[in-house]
User: Fold Phosphoinositide phospholipase C from Chordeiles acutipennis.
Amino acid sequence: MQQGTLMRKVKSKSWKKQRYFKLQDDCMTIWYQSKRTGKIESAFSISDVETVREGHQSEVLQSLAEEFPPERCFTIVFYGRRGNLDLIAGSAEEAQCWVQGLRQLIEPRSFPLTSALVSCTWIRDWFQKADKNKDGRMNFKEVQRLLKMMNVDMNEDHALRLFQAADKSDSGTLEGEEFVLFYKSLTQREEVLSLFQEYSEDGKKLTLLELVDFLQQEQLEIEGTEELAMGLIDKYEPSETARARHVLSADGFLMYLCSPEGSIFNPQHRALWQDMTQPLCHYFISSSHNTYLIEDQIRGQSSIEGYIRALKRGCRCLEVDCWDGPNGEPMVYHGHTFTSKIPFREVVSTLGKYAFKVGHPALGAGCQVALSGCGRIRDGHPRMPTSPSPTPQELKHKILLKGKKIGRLEDMLDGPGDEAPDVSDDDNGAEAEEERRRAKVGGTQHSPVLQKDKESLAQALSDCVIYCKTVSFRGFQEARSHSRPFEISSLAESKARKLIRDAGNEFVHHNTWQLTRIYPSGMRTDSSNYSPQEMWNVGCQIVALNFQTAGTEMDLCDGLFSQNGRCGYVLKPPFMRDKETLFNPNDPGSREGPGPITLTIQVISGQQLPKVANSKDEAIIDPLVRVEIHGVPADQAHQETKYIENNGFNPRWDETLQFQLHVPELALVRFVVEDYDKTSRNDFVGQFTLAFANIKPGYRHIHLLSKDGTSIPPSSLFVHIRITE
Assistant:
């Protein structure tokens, strides 16, 4: 349809604007314009779209369910923290046309993208952006504009030579294959070609034995290298003739280095690779704070999108603050604040749909829900393992409730006991401090509120609390004497820091047999985050973060839990699971095992780095690379390269950075690219974070992520990694 499809763009029950939506000829871009003014208001790329949901699958569309049937409604969900786009088509047929069409366009991304496919998409995107008059050709003026857009500051004479060499038709313009030729000459990787020729006797190909030498000597592949080399040739060599001869061309070599096998992240650790049969307290568990909030803590919006986004990121511990609502229906919101409210039943329905979609399919990754307040629970006797210390493997596809409990857990697991029933609460604990803070925010006296909560705790809800019974923390000695492995305490970040400082080893020891949850300070009303690393250093399992807030803290969280099938569970190192451990993160010498290791990183080059957000077309970045080590205090460090002036397209640094790691098992390595600014703070360009245990040595590419944690292909760094004792 030339004009586009007329649909309603919906932001709220009262905000419904008609817009024309159209898929551009490149099949990669969608724009929409105002029906009233005809002005194009916005556009987005198909590559920005994560999924499409049919029907009333958002709060806004649910609120309009009586006005518009589900067959006409759908939601476009974007990657990262970008807001969803709720749309209402004029008919069910039009809605299906868009839903099915969008799914067809984003479907190829379900399969691994080769470097050739990424480059093809990238070339097409740039051609469409630079071809201003849309005639399918590009003159030299348009090419010059393109170079600026691509972060390239190139001498005009050199650019003209490349242009003329690619213009095989002598037409003064580039089209089709001519532009591809120009792009390839522009992206020639001299540093990769030099490495290729170092191992190639004739400089044109790598024989099978030459490739084996490279894999053994540089990539430190030890076992099955000949089979590995054969597999790489079959997978990445574009020439059928070369594949038949079992040789790898320079193009195939580059494709291998840009592939998952050539990534800094060990591909074997992407899948489920750790033992999942140990007690729950032996794992770090991906955890969120006030999961329902997608903005600030005082006036922010509560939304089921908070749960969907957290679960899709592999989060396994969610928070549900449940309060009495109208007509006795429980509502979820940040109590005693001005945040919006969502029905408890919508939250439960969302958990049912999304709790086990992410993670290794064989694991199903048990999900914990931190539940406060009261609600009507129909099934008061769920079937659970009878072990006092269940494992993730035993808890597959099950949901645990963390909360207060009437009576003793032993009475449910082992039958009646001699001890009189009690109502477990946190009146003197850290969670009570959070409740008091919340009460003060709302101007309500906290004591009656807490007493009312205690008195109104539903027996049916209490019966659902198994293994994660909330207890007050009154010191490590008290815990050793009176607590049980199936109980859990929550500590504010400030309390946790004091314990780390004053009793590091005791904290580590405590976390070998019982769960500990850490939550942000009540002063973080802007939903900012604390560093999770210092909490992981003492083995705290449930380190709750505000998932809606991008930054270093969430990069560390995503980096740690990007391994092990993204199941949300990461096994702690052996010295943090031993009940006799002497480890104290403040004294790295207390760790049993080999001595410090040296991590040497040669930062070689960057490829097609993105522009800084909201910068002008003609602006070109001055990139530098900073490498950060996050770990025990003795290992905390960062170093950075010099900046390269006016080149975000193919900067070369060739600088070596070196770090000594005393406790590598706890270290996370964060690579950050910034745009240098001598008069103000550097601007963020991209980052990638991973656990040291997941690093593959050798010549590796680091595929950068945005501030929201989404991929930005084909932006990458090329590095050489060495690890020595």
